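ESCALATION

Customer reports they have been waiting on this structure for their group meeting. Please prioritize. Original submission:
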Amino acid sequence: MEEIKLTSLVRSSGCNAKLPPGDLHKALDDLKQIESNDLIEGFESSDDALVYDLGDKVLIETVDFFPPMVDDPEIFGEIAAANAISDIYAMGGEPKLAMSLMCFPSCLDIRIMRRIMEGAIRKAGEAGVVIAGGHTLSDREPKFGLAVTGFADKEDVWSNKGAMAGDVAVLTKKLGVGLLMTAHKAGESEALEAILQMRELNKKAKEAAEGLEIHAATDVTGFSLMGHGYEVGSASGVTFVVDQKKLEFLEGAEEAAKFGFVPEGRYTNEDYLADKVELPESLPLYLRDMLFSPETSGGLLLFMPPRDASEYIKRFEKAFIIGEVTEFQGKHLRVI
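Update from on-call: job pushed to the front of the queue and completed.
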């Protein structure tokens, strides 16, 4: 089978391919909805998944798909599966079932599709998820992802609203994937650490929080740390203060930003957030690029009391504190 570079077939890749957040809000904010007393979480606060009341338990449903950011079909399938399943973990749930979404160019060898599915099935199996069907379309650009169903006890559900003054924010994966993958596509970076991190499930990160007091949660993906952090602050009615000195980035991300390997989504993210977040006037451009750049299959962002954060980091040593929550200070997100 002839080796095809999947990334050569697409204009954008990974979560960088998301529509600009400003455009999404224009389309959805005033949309009339069908109301249901059993719908606990919808898209009102831009949460990671819907939550539907089943009585003793709740059903958690999400969907995510995107174009490839790597050339290996199986690794692409693994990353896409890990990214989609993450939304269930970000809601405090246990993923169980999935349906696949595949857009595939008719000119490509069908064995490439099979390899994408093999990678996805392998990663889903690691999460305890059964892929039980799906849907395919012929498309000029390959795209793949999953619609995932999970379950949780009602009292265990997390949301992106509920962060409280005095909480600290813990992130479970390093930042910089979007920058490194942009450099990788230009042939300037192998991005091995970024690719390994994207393939990593957030399963252990979620399980490490068992028994701890989690007030709010999300995962950091296409709308960047700034976008997803702002959503928590806004939904919770508080200010999330990010300490730039505490952020951890993948090796090479800073250099990629300084050399201008910046994904397009970085600019649409800042365009939407410009009047919603507060940044230091002295913040260098390369660091602004790093803060607003999209992430793919990023870490969980958890808000909890300091004592629980200390315990969490003991349990999950990759995690690190990146800031704190205060009463509302005029903006829902500040960088210091």
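Sent to customer with the following note: The chain has a mean pLDDT of 94.
Escalation resolved.
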